[in-house]
Amino acid sequence: MFKLTSLNLNGIRSASSKGVEAWVEATAPDCICVQEIKAQAPDMAGRFEVLAGLRGHFHFAQKKGYSGVGIYSRHEPSDVVAGFGSQEFDAEGRYVEARFDTPSRKLSIISAYFPSGSSGEERQQAKFRFLAEMHAHLMHLKAGRELILCGDINIAHQPIDLKNWRSNQKNSGFTPEERAWMTMLLHKTDPSGGMVDVYRQLQPDATDACYTWWSNRGQAYANNVGWRLDYHLATPATAALARTESIYKQVKFSDHAPITIGYEMKL
N or C: which end of the chain has fewer CB within 10 A? Predict the structure, then answer.
């Protein structure tokens, strides 16, 4: 079983002080995709290049203390791609892809951090631009290889993916446009779709148990007033290998919970 975890750290130094490394050691994923490292290469040097024996590959933001993604893997990739070719967004450190290619298979594991539009209309418009670019990129990628994109997508797709869906229909993360983007991406027969929401494949009806993010305001976490923002999105043949899923709500390294999927495959 290949265990793949996704976790928004909300700062690797902060998550480290809360015991994330010991947790990774205990749960022993083969690969962990992390988002919001909030660090640059000099901050990582000698400290965070390796996490619980897993070697890291990163894409840092130019802006200090902002964004940044990484993939820690037990297996050495055949190639690593930092950024997805976006003039606007690659400077924000939102995409790193580890390729595990063999003569008989091409496979990419991607850690991605989608923008949030919650700070205002300007960032919401940037988010829409990001979604358009990312969709084109994923379509191009899946035409030639299997892939699993893990990350903080910052979109709750359906009403069952967040607690208070009625009051959030105009809020970033649950706007009609963002939800339509997800619907298009996950369409089973449309050429502009074809990706699979792996958690939903395994747990099609989960509601309260599916949340991966809780606001720090009020008693959102205590009352489980959450959103499902963290995903595994895979090509169909790879998604079909998914067997187990776990959302670790009980651990608190950041405002997000880790999500692990077990795939019946080997790198």
Answer: N
What residues contact residue 117 under an 8 Å CB cut-off, 6+ apart? 123, 124, 125, 126, 127, 128, 154, 172, 173
Pick the catalytic residue from 43, 90, 101, 152.
152
Residue/partner pairs of 191-197 with CB below 8 Å, 24 or more apart: 192/135, 192/139, 194/142, 194/235, 194/236, 195/138, 195/142, 195/149, 195/233, 195/234, 195/235, 196/233, 196/234, 196/235, 196/236, 196/239, 197/157, 197/231, 197/232, 197/233
pLDDT on residue 125: 98
Which strands form 146-152's sheet, in the order they lie side by side? 79-82, 95-99, 107-113, 146-152, 230-234, 196-197
- Nearest Cα neighbor of 144 from 193, 101, 94 is 101
How confident is the model over 101-105, as a mean pLDDT? 96
Residue 81 is encoded by which pair of tokens? 């791609």
As beta bridge partners, residue 244 has 262
- In the prediction, which pLDDT does 28 show? 97
Q: Where are the alpha helices (DSSP H) in the chain?
A: 12-17, 20-27, 41-44, 121-142, 176-185, 198-202, 236-239
Give the side-chain half-sphere CA count within 13 A for 50.
7
Local structure of residue 189 (DSSP, 8 states): S
Measured in residues, the chain has a length of 267
Distance, in Å, from the CA atom of 187 to the CA atom of 257, rounded to the nearest integer, reads: 27
- Would the pTM count as exceeding 0.85? yes
pLDDT digits (tens, 9 = 90+) for 107-121: 999 999 999 998 899
Cα–Cα distance, 169 to 263 (Å, whole number): 34
